[in-house]
Amino acid sequence: CSSDLEAMAGIDALVASCGAESTGQVLSWDELRGLGGQGVALAAHTRSHPRLDQLPVERAALEVIGSIDDLERELGHRTPTVAFPGGGYTAELVDRLRARGVVLGF
What we know:
- The protein is mainly alpha-helical and about 110 residues long.
- The protein is built from four helices and two strands.
- The protein has a two-stranded parallel sheet.
- α3 (about 55-75) packs across α4.
- The longest helix has 19 residues, at about 55-75.
- The chain starts with a helix and ends with a strand.
């Protein structure tokens, strides 16, 4: 596949052909809440796990900000931090995320 989006679409199609449903989640929200309650620091990791350096910058920023918003909604507090999938990011993305309140990326 030539992009992460195409790869994810292919995986979703494969899962659907097996009669299953892909949630895209490794841990449930209850499990994440439990970890947070035990003092584990949680950071955004995007909504669909793409390599952010392979996406248009606005789409990459939406992946991160959406993930931060999801964590805030589910965990009750905002964590302006992102762990970049595969370590991929661009300087332009970092600038956009800083402008939207992200203070730490790794």
